[in-house]
Amino acid sequence: MQDISLQNFKDDICNIKEYINHINLVNKIEISNRDSNIEPLKEFCQHIHRFSQDKRIFEYKAIVISLYGILETYINYWVQEHIELLPRLISNYNKLPEKIKKNHFDLSIRLISFISENRFSKYEHLQKEDILIKLSSCLKKTSPYTLNSEAFAPFSGNLKHQKIMDAFKCLDIDLSGSLKTNPAFKDFLVKKYGHNIDNRGKELFSIIDDLVTRRNDISHGIHVDNILNVTEFYDYLEFLEYYGKAIFETIREKEIEYESRHLFEKIDNIKGIFKQGSILCFEVENNDIKVGDYIIVEANNRFIKKPILNIEINKKSFKNKDISVKTDVGVDLGNGITKNQVFYIKKYNQKI
Predict the structure, then answer these.
(1) Is the residue at 20 inside a domain?
(2) 100 and 125: one domain?
(3) CB-hemisphere CA count at 13 Å for 9?
(4) 70 close to 12: Cβ distance less than 8 angstroms
(5) Domain final residue, candidates 259, 291, 312
(6) From the CB of residue 39, how many other CB atoms can be counted at a distance below 10 Å?
(7) Whether residue 222 sits in one domain with residue 284
(8) Which helix (H) or strand (E) holds 266?
(9) Are strands 310-313 and 316-318 parallel, antiparallel or unpaired?
(10) 154 and 92 both lie in a single domain
(11) Do 152 and 170 touch, CB atoms closer than 8 A?
């Protein structure tokens, strides 16, 4: 997962916030200048007054459609990006999780059916033959292989929370559990709902479902009675930002886990942890270590990558070191490492 996509997601939400700020500013100008004798301002205020109800409805619809568009766009993008990255993390198709292999076959067949029936415009750029070629390369266990990433993207324009959970189950990711344990999102939920978040069930994600319902009503031309004031959307924006960030981090953490299993190797001989949890000392051989490389840290079934800031061997510092025989090495990882964690180092000459 690329950080730029998360930043783009945040920027899109920020743009809607600015749009709401713009609406509020226009409304304040109209209110404070109703008695103005300046002709342009007078004309402006009269226009806003005449247009006020239709303006509220238009602004409401624009914000709802835009918010849902962000949700659908980035869920689809992140799902496909993850699937496209998997062959680089797991080079042998047979070593993919069984659930992903089964779903890849089933969903690829479904995708071919959608293309044949010409039911969805978003698949117009795809060719059945290309889908079959990719699927065949996987079934024949050729290397390298390519997955049909579009097959995993949710095809419905009705992405309520449960449908998003179901889409991630196809990726062998338990999003329901990981969202509640994501530190930042959990703190946000506790602040919003109180400490008993485990007992609230679907209520925790009611904002997502309400947004989808409102979007569907607009798309289907249903008369909208309960129009939200633009300021009420701040809650939706805040929730969506935390929700999307937690989903992004869950996918990235899964990818780090795959790296630890397939591109890294467990460090078995830990000599100690020093300088208040910043220096990891261990025995290593047949490896090349560089400043800027990563050590993967596993703790409580969570995976993070920590960059190597410095390498020390026999009290001498190195920027990089090619090690062929068993050698005790100390690497500076900044902070936050403890003895009960599991550590992984990239395999020799492994490009990440």
Answers:
(1) yes
(2) yes
(3) 27
(4) yes
(5) 259
(6) 8
(7) no
(8) strand 264-266
(9) antiparallel
(10) yes
(11) yes
Residue 80 confidence (pLDDT): 96
**Could you give the C-alpha distances from 51 to 44, 45, 59, in angstroms and in order?**
11, 10, 12
- The residue range of the domain holding 133 is 3-259
Q: Where does a domain end: 259, 280, 308?
A: 259
3-state secondary structure of 348: coil
Same domain, 193 and 330: no
pLDDT at residue 352 in the model: 57
Verify that 247 and 337 share a domain, yes or no: no
Please check whether residue 92 lies inside any domain of the structure.
yes
Do 291 and 334 contact (CB within 8 A), yes or no? no
pLDDT of 345 reads 96
Please report the pLDDT score of residue 48 as a whole number.
86
Do 183 and 304 lie in one domain? The reply is no
Cα separations in angstroms, 40 against 44, 47, 48, 55, 209: 6, 11, 12, 19, 43
Has residue 201 got a pLDDT over 80? Answer: no
CA dihedral 206, 208, 211, 212 (to 10 degrees): -110
**Beta-sheet pairing, 264-266 with 310-313:** unpaired
Tell me if 218 is assigned to some domain: yes
pTM recorded for the entire structure? 0.91
Q: What is the pLDDT of residue 350?
A: 65
Residue in 190, 122, 196 with CA at minimum distance from that of residue 156: 122
Residue 352 lies in a domain: no
> Does residue 72 have a pLDDT over 70?
yes
Q: DSSP class of residue 291?
A: T
pLDDT in tens, 29-54: 988 898 888 988 888 888 888 888 88
Mean pLDDT for 84-104 is: 95
* Burial class (CB within 10 angstroms; exposed 0-12, middle 13-18, buried 19+) of 112: buried
Distance in angstroms (rounded) separating the CA atoms of residues 271 and 222: 67
CATH number at residue 287: 2.40.30.10
Q: pLDDT digit string (tens) for 141-183?
A: 778 899 999 999 987 668 999 999 999 999 999 998 888 889 9
